[in-house]
Amino acid sequence: MLSYITEVPSDRPVSGVHCIPMLDNGNIVMVWDRNEQVLTTIGGRVEQGESLASALQREALEEAGIVLEEKLVPFACWYWEEYGSYRVYYLAKVQRFVEWPPHFETTGYVITNVETALAMIRKLEGREERIAVVRRAGLLSGALKEDAR
User: Fold this and answer.
1) Residue 133 in contact with residue 2, Cβ under 8 Å?
2) Which domains are seen in the chain, by residue range?
Protein backbone atom coordinates (compact mmCIF):
# COMPACT_ATOMS: atom_id res chain seq x y z
CA MET A 1 0.00 0.00 0.00
CA LEU A 2 1.36 3.40 -1.02
CA SER A 3 1.41 6.22 1.55
CA TYR A 4 2.71 9.77 1.34
CA ILE A 5 5.20 10.66 4.06
CA THR A 6 7.45 13.47 5.26
CA GLU A 7 9.84 11.27 7.23
CA VAL A 8 11.05 7.69 7.01
CA PRO A 9 8.75 5.26 8.85
CA SER A 10 10.29 3.67 11.94
CA ASP A 11 7.70 1.06 12.91
CA ARG A 12 9.06 -1.56 10.47
CA PRO A 13 12.37 -2.10 8.64
CA VAL A 14 13.10 -0.36 5.33
CA SER A 15 14.36 -2.94 2.84
CA GLY A 16 14.28 -0.85 -0.33
CA VAL A 17 15.00 2.71 -1.41
CA HIS A 18 14.06 4.41 -4.67
CA CYS A 19 14.26 7.97 -5.90
CA ILE A 20 13.09 10.45 -8.47
CA PRO A 21 16.27 12.38 -9.32
CA MET A 22 15.59 15.94 -10.47
CA LEU A 23 17.72 18.12 -12.71
CA ASP A 24 17.96 21.89 -12.24
CA ASN A 25 15.61 22.45 -15.20
CA GLY A 26 12.82 20.36 -13.61
CA ASN A 27 13.36 17.25 -15.71
CA ILE A 28 13.65 13.87 -14.02
CA VAL A 29 15.91 10.87 -14.52
CA MET A 30 14.45 7.38 -14.76
CA VAL A 31 15.85 4.09 -16.02
CA TRP A 32 14.68 1.51 -18.53
CA ASP A 33 14.36 -1.93 -16.93
CA ARG A 34 15.49 -4.38 -19.60
CA ASN A 35 13.84 -7.38 -17.94
CA GLU A 36 10.42 -5.89 -17.20
CA GLN A 37 10.51 -3.58 -20.27
CA VAL A 38 9.30 -0.59 -18.25
CA LEU A 39 10.41 2.91 -17.36
CA THR A 40 11.13 2.78 -13.64
CA THR A 41 12.40 4.72 -10.66
CA ILE A 42 16.03 4.35 -9.62
CA GLY A 43 16.70 2.22 -6.57
CA GLY A 44 16.80 -1.21 -5.03
CA ARG A 45 17.54 -3.21 -1.91
CA VAL A 46 19.30 -1.94 1.17
CA GLU A 47 22.28 -4.20 1.90
CA GLN A 48 22.97 -5.36 5.47
CA GLY A 49 24.78 -2.66 7.46
CA GLU A 50 24.15 -0.02 4.79
CA SER A 51 22.43 3.28 5.59
CA LEU A 52 19.40 4.25 3.50
CA ALA A 53 21.31 7.20 2.01
CA SER A 54 24.31 5.03 1.13
CA ALA A 55 22.06 2.41 -0.46
CA LEU A 56 20.34 5.05 -2.58
CA GLN A 57 23.64 6.61 -3.67
CA ARG A 58 24.96 3.14 -4.62
CA GLU A 59 21.83 2.26 -6.59
CA ALA A 60 21.83 5.62 -8.42
CA LEU A 61 25.44 5.10 -9.43
CA GLU A 62 24.93 1.46 -10.44
CA GLU A 63 21.70 1.93 -12.37
CA ALA A 64 22.11 5.35 -13.96
CA GLY A 65 25.65 6.60 -13.44
CA ILE A 66 24.53 9.54 -11.33
CA VAL A 67 25.71 10.99 -8.05
CA LEU A 68 22.93 12.49 -5.95
CA GLU A 69 23.20 15.56 -3.76
CA GLU A 70 23.25 14.76 -0.04
CA LYS A 71 19.78 16.14 0.69
CA LEU A 72 17.22 13.38 0.16
CA VAL A 73 13.55 14.11 0.84
CA PRO A 74 11.36 11.10 1.68
CA PHE A 75 7.91 11.59 0.16
CA ALA A 76 6.28 8.19 -0.23
CA CYS A 77 6.57 4.62 0.98
CA TRP A 78 5.15 1.28 -0.02
CA TYR A 79 4.47 -1.24 2.71
CA TRP A 80 5.11 -4.84 1.65
CA GLU A 81 2.78 -6.89 3.86
CA GLU A 82 4.38 -10.20 2.81
CA TYR A 83 7.87 -8.99 3.81
CA GLY A 84 6.90 -6.77 6.74
CA SER A 85 9.04 -3.94 5.42
CA TYR A 86 8.93 -0.66 3.52
CA ARG A 87 10.26 0.69 0.26
CA VAL A 88 10.88 4.42 0.69
CA TYR A 89 10.81 6.90 -2.20
CA TYR A 90 12.94 10.03 -2.11
CA LEU A 91 13.00 13.23 -4.09
CA ALA A 92 16.66 13.91 -4.90
CA LYS A 93 18.73 16.32 -6.97
CA VAL A 94 21.35 15.13 -9.42
CA GLN A 95 24.79 16.40 -8.46
CA ARG A 96 26.55 15.01 -11.54
CA PHE A 97 26.66 12.25 -14.13
CA VAL A 98 29.63 9.88 -14.27
CA GLU A 99 30.69 7.18 -16.71
CA TRP A 100 29.71 3.73 -15.59
CA PRO A 101 29.83 0.24 -17.06
CA PRO A 102 26.60 -1.19 -18.47
CA HIS A 103 24.37 -2.56 -15.73
CA PHE A 104 22.71 -5.96 -15.93
CA GLU A 105 19.24 -4.67 -14.93
CA THR A 106 18.97 -1.41 -16.84
CA THR A 107 20.00 -0.19 -20.25
CA GLY A 108 20.64 3.34 -19.09
CA TYR A 109 18.85 6.45 -18.05
CA VAL A 110 16.05 8.45 -19.62
CA ILE A 111 15.79 12.20 -19.03
CA THR A 112 12.31 13.61 -19.50
CA ASN A 113 9.84 16.02 -18.01
CA VAL A 114 7.34 14.73 -15.47
CA GLU A 115 4.30 14.93 -17.77
CA THR A 116 6.01 12.86 -20.47
CA ALA A 117 7.21 10.31 -17.90
CA LEU A 118 3.63 9.92 -16.66
CA ALA A 119 2.31 9.49 -20.20
CA MET A 120 4.99 6.89 -20.99
CA ILE A 121 4.27 4.90 -17.81
CA ARG A 122 0.52 4.95 -18.52
CA LYS A 123 1.05 3.83 -22.12
CA LEU A 124 3.65 1.14 -21.39
CA GLU A 125 2.26 -0.43 -18.23
CA GLY A 126 -0.37 1.67 -16.48
CA ARG A 127 0.92 0.71 -13.03
CA GLU A 128 -0.87 3.03 -10.60
CA GLU A 129 1.81 2.88 -7.90
CA ARG A 130 4.53 4.16 -10.24
CA ILE A 131 2.20 6.81 -11.70
CA ALA A 132 1.32 8.04 -8.19
CA VAL A 133 4.98 8.18 -7.11
CA VAL A 134 6.13 10.13 -10.18
CA ARG A 135 3.13 12.45 -10.01
CA ARG A 136 3.74 13.18 -6.31
CA ALA A 137 7.43 13.92 -6.97
CA GLY A 138 6.43 16.28 -9.77
CA LEU A 139 3.98 18.13 -7.53
CA LEU A 140 6.42 18.41 -4.62
CA SER A 141 9.22 19.67 -6.85
CA GLY A 142 7.00 22.21 -8.60
CA ALA A 143 7.64 20.56 -11.97
CA LEU A 144 3.96 19.57 -12.26
CA LYS A 145 0.84 21.63 -11.67
CA GLU A 146 -1.89 20.30 -9.36
CA ASP A 147 -4.44 19.81 -12.15
CA ALA A 148 -2.08 17.75 -14.35
CA ARG A 149 -3.13 14.14 -14.79
Assistant:
1) yes
2) 2-141 (3.90.79.10)
